[in-house]
Known about the structure:
Elements: E1 2-4, H1 6-19, E2 22-27, E3 32-37, E4 40-45, E5 48-55, H2 60-67, E6 70-75, H3 81-89, H4 97-100, E7 105-107, E8 113-115, E9 120-131, E10 153-164
Antiparallel strand pairs: 1-10, 2-3, 2-6, 4-5, 5-10, 6-9, 7-8, 9-10
Amino acid sequence: MEKAEVRTAMPEILTAFGKNNALLAVGDKSRRNIMTIGWCGLGRMWNLPSCTIYVRPERYTYSFLETHEYFTLSVLPAEYRGEMNFCGTKSGRDVDKFLACGLTVQYGAADAPFPAEAEWAIVCKKRYAQDLGPGFVLDEKICGFYRDEGWHRMYIGEITEAYKK
């Protein structure tokens, strides 16, 4: 993958992330994890190109997000649907999902990992984190979503790099 200019690439990135679920990867060259996510937002925050993600504390990826300054989001081509499903159903506690899926690891800023097979990848520097919770819900039916697991933590990252196939 080659680097792309973040500001001029934003419309293409939004289109790519709107077609498929994304892969969230966190870690470095010594340890990493990747997981499929369905919740993310791209846009501007504090006049910065930004990405917002949501991860529950029960997820293995959560500990990586708490200990690393950067994370990546990427979209794989449609022919990688099986790999996307694998990354969304298996835990990184049990298996290195990059290896199990045969994905080539590429690194961005601060050695943040992402799959080189992706159509697009963005590297984000964490700028803000906040726990979601029932005290902030304006529509009670949302609370039903959280019966069996904890509330997500929201992370807002500044998009510092973009990579394009």
